[in-house]
Design a protein that fits this description.
CATH architecture: 2-Layer Sandwich
Number of helices: 6
Distance between the termini: 27 Å
CATH topology: Zincin-like
Number of strands: 4
Helix content: 40-55%
Strand content: 15-25%
CATH class: Alpha Beta
Order of helices and strands: EHHEHEEHHH
Length: 141
């Protein structure tokens, strides 16, 4: 499950620690009812995706991968689920910096990407996540 985009603006670079704080802020903005249900998942920041991650996500040339969920969604975990490594949500700093024109846009994109990937952790498909994002954007107008 992934968050990707193909529009590229001027790249803004941010210190990794400052970027990680934005990821923490994005997580903290998730409603408590969902935060309380996060289970066996780690959120990490990487510069950019590996070739293997791009291949697994079926990402083509010219498309940036902003975030990636790797794991077993909660909706697929059965009674024998256990003794497994945590699911992994990776937020790709360099990709987000490439699509954001300002620090505020980086903050907003980080928040949206974190929420997007956490939705996959709860079992939402790419299509349903994108539809929810579209509804939210329309509600904000």
């Amino acid at each position: 499950m992934l968050e990707s985009v193909s529009i590229i603006f001027a790249e803004i670079k941010m210190d990794k620690k400052d970027f990680e704080k934005l990821v923490e802020e994005g997580i903290a903005m998730i409603p408590e009812e969902f935060l309380a249900r996060l289970e066996n998942v780690a959120v990490v920041v990487e510069g950019e995706p590996t070739r293997e991650q791009l291949r697994k996500a079926k990402i083509g040339r010219g498309v940036l991968l902003l975030g990636l969920y790797e794991g077993v969604p909660q909706t697929r975990r059965g009674p024998n689920y256990g003794m497994v490594l945590p699911d992994k949500i990776t937020i790709f700093q360099k990709s987000i910096e490439k699509v954001a024109g300002t620090e505020n846009e980086i903050r907003e994109q980080v928040k949206n990407t974190v929420w997007h990937e956490i939705a996959h952790h709860f079992g939402s498909s790419e299509e349903s996540v994108r539809a929810a994002e579209s509804r939210r954007r329309n509600d904000e107008r």
